[in-house]
UniProtKB/TrEMBL annotation, chain A:
<dbReference type="InterPro" id="IPR040523">
    <property type="entry name" value="AsnC_trans_reg2"/>
</dbReference>
<comment type="pathway">
    <text>Porphyrin-containing compound metabolism.</text>
</comment>
<protein>
    <recommendedName>
        <fullName>siroheme decarboxylase</fullName>
        <ecNumber>4.1.1.111</ecNumber>
    </recommendedName>
</protein>
<comment type="subunit">
    <text>Probably forms a complex composed of NirD, NirL, NirG and NirH. All proteins are required for the total conversion of siroheme to didecarboxysiroheme.</text>
</comment>
<comment type="function">
    <text>Involved in heme d1 biosynthesis. Catalyzes the decarboxylation of siroheme into didecarboxysiroheme.</text>
</comment>
<dbReference type="Pfam" id="PF22451">
    <property type="entry name" value="NirdL-like_HTH"/>
</dbReference>
<feature type="domain" description="Siroheme decarboxylase NirL-like HTH">
    <location>
        <begin position="12"/>
        <end position="56"/>
    </location>
</feature>
<dbReference type="Pfam" id="PF17805">
    <property type="entry name" value="AsnC_trans_reg2"/>
</dbReference>
<dbReference type="InterPro" id="IPR053953">
    <property type="entry name" value="NirdL-like_HTH"/>
</dbReference>
<dbReference type="InterPro" id="IPR036388">
    <property type="entry name" value="WH-like_DNA-bd_sf"/>
</dbReference>
<feature type="domain" description="Siroheme decarboxylase AsnC-like ligand binding">
    <location>
        <begin position="71"/>
        <end position="135"/>
    </location>
</feature>
<keyword id="KW-0456">Lyase</keyword>
<dbReference type="InterPro" id="IPR050684">
    <property type="entry name" value="HTH-Siroheme_Decarb"/>
</dbReference>
<dbReference type="GO" id="GO:0016829">
    <property type="term" value="F:lyase activity"/>
</dbReference>
<comment type="similarity">
    <text>Belongs to the Ahb/Nir family.</text>
</comment>
C-alpha cells in the first residue's frame, strides 16, 4: 500500500498539523482557520472535503471524554484464526462497536464497545458473548494517563511506503 | 454539563401551552439529538453550528453555548480534525501490555504517558488467570522495526527490563470510527 501522505501538499499538512485541536467555536470557524493558513474559506472547505474523500480525515468534530460521555469497554476474544473474518463480522454487527482489530496474540480479536450507560453496555456484551459462543475478556479502563489520540504526524516517515 | 443545560434553558422561550416539565423534556431531547449529530462530525458548511442547530431545532447561539460549556466541563476533550492514521501510512500499531506490581502502576503509567512515542496509556484490571496485564500503552508507527526500536529504547530509559510485557501488533482493522455513545437506529451508521 502506498502512503497517501505523498499526495498531500504543504497546505494540507499544515492544516492537519495545526487543527487536530483548537477548532474555534464561533459562527464561521472555517473562515477563521482559513485566514490563519492563508486560504479562503471555500478553499479550506474544499480541502477538508478532499481529505475526507481520501479517507485521511475521519471527521471534523469533538472527541468526547469517554468517562463522561457514556460507558465503554475494551474486550478481547480468542477465535480460530481461519474463522477470524466471520467472528469479526459478528462483532461489527453488535451495537456500539467502534473499533475492531485483529492482533497477533492468542486473543486475536480486540474491540471497543460503547453504550449510553453501564447497564446497557453489560447487556450488549452478554448478548454478543452468547452469539460468539466464546468467553470475552472484559477490560474496562480504570485510569487514563494519556487517552487523547492526536500526535504530531511524522511526515518524513509517511512519505516512504511501508 | 449542568451549567450547559442551564444555558440552553435560559434561552428557550416556552410556548404558552408548555408546562415546565414538558419544556425541559423537550430541551433534553434536543440536547441529546445535538450530541448524536456531533458524534458524527461537524458539517462542512460555512456556518456549521447553524447547520447543526437547524437539524435539532436550536439556534446557532444555543448550539455554540452548549459546545463551549461541554469544552469547559471536559465532556469534549478536543475539537478539531480527527485523522485516520492508517490511511496516512501509520499502520504498525503496537499495543504493549505490562504486568506491573500494583503499587507502581500509577507512577509508571504517568511516566510512560510522558514518553513521546507513547500515544495512549491506561490502566485496566487483570483478569487472572488468562490475563495478567494491568498497564496498556500504544505505540503508533509507520514500520514494525521502528516501533520495536522505540519500545526497546523506552525499556532501557525507563528501566523496565524486569517488568513482563507483550507486544500485540494489529494486523487488520475491521472497523475504526469515533465512539458513538448515543447512536441509535435513527442515526445513520457511516
Amino acid at each position: 500500500m502506498t502512503s497517501l501522505a505523498q499526495g498531500l501538499d504543504t497546505q494540507d499538512r499544515r492544516l492537519l498539523d495545526r487543527y487536530q485541536r483548537g477548532l474555534p467555536v464561533c459562527p464561521r470557524p472555517y473562515a477563521v482557520m482559513a485566514e490563519e493558513l492563508g486560504l479562503t474559506e471555500s478553499e479550506l472547505l474544499e480541502r477538508l472535503e478532499r481529505l475526507q474523500e481520501l479517507d485521511v480525515l475521519s471527521r471534523v468534530g469533538p472527541v468526547f471524554d469517554h468517562v463522561q460521555a457514556g460507558a465503554s469497554l475494551l474486550a478481547a476474544v480468542s477465535v480460530p484464526e481461519e474463522q477470524r473474518e466471520s467472528y469479526a463480522d459478528l462483532i461489527n454487527q453488535a451495537p456500539g462497536v467502534n473499533h475492531n482489530y485483529a492482533r497477533e496474540h492468542h486473543y486475536n480479536l480486540w474491540f471497543v464497545m460503547t453504550a449510553p450507560d453501564e447497564a446497557a453496555l453489560a447487556q450488549r456484551l452478554d448478548v454478543l458473548e452468547i452469539k460468539l459462543g466464546r468467553p470475552l475478556l472484559r477490560l474496562p479502563m480504570l485510569e487514563g494517563f494519556h487517552i487523547d489520540l492526536s500526535f504530531p504526524l511524522p511526515w518524513d516517515e509517511m512519505e516512504v511506503p511501508a | 454539563m449542568n451549567q450547559a443545560n442551564l444555558l440552553v434553558e435560559d434561552q428557550v422561550q416556552p410556548a404558552p401551552a408548555c408546562t415546565k416539565r414538558a419544556l425541559s423534556m423537550a430541551t433534553r431531547a434536543k440536547v441529546h439529538r445535538l450530541r448524536q449529530l456531533l458524534e458524527q462530525g461537524l458539517p462542512l458548511t460555512p456556518q456549521p453550528w447553524r447547520t447543526l442547530g437547524e437539524q435539532c431545532a436550536m439556534s446557532e447561539r444555543e448550539v455554540m453555548a452548549l459546545v463551549a460549556g461541554w469544552q469547559q466541563s471536559g465532556l469534549i476533550k478536543r475539537l478539531g480534525l480527527v485523522v485516520k492514521h492508517r490511511s496516512l501510512g501509520i499502520t504498525a500499531n503496537a499495543m504493549v501490555v505490562w504486568d506491573v506490581p500494583d503499587p507502581q502502576v500509577a507512577a509508571l503509567g504517568r511516566r510512560l504517558a510522558a514518553e513521546p512515542a507513547v500515544t495512549l496509556c491506561y490502566r485496566r484490571p487483570r483478569q487472572l488467570p488468562e490475563w495478567p496485564y494491568n498497564l496498556f500503552c500504544m505505540i503508533h508507527g509507520t514500520a514494525r522495526e521502528r516501533v520495536l526500536a522505540e519500545l526497546e529504547a523506552l525499556i532501557q530509559r525507563q528501566n523496565l527490563s524486569e517488568i513482563p510485557h507483550q507486544v500485540l501488533f494489529s494486523t487488520r482493522a475491521y472497523r475504526q470510527h469515533g465512539a458513538r455513545y448515543l447512536a441509535d437506529q435513527s442515526v445513520k451508521e457511516a
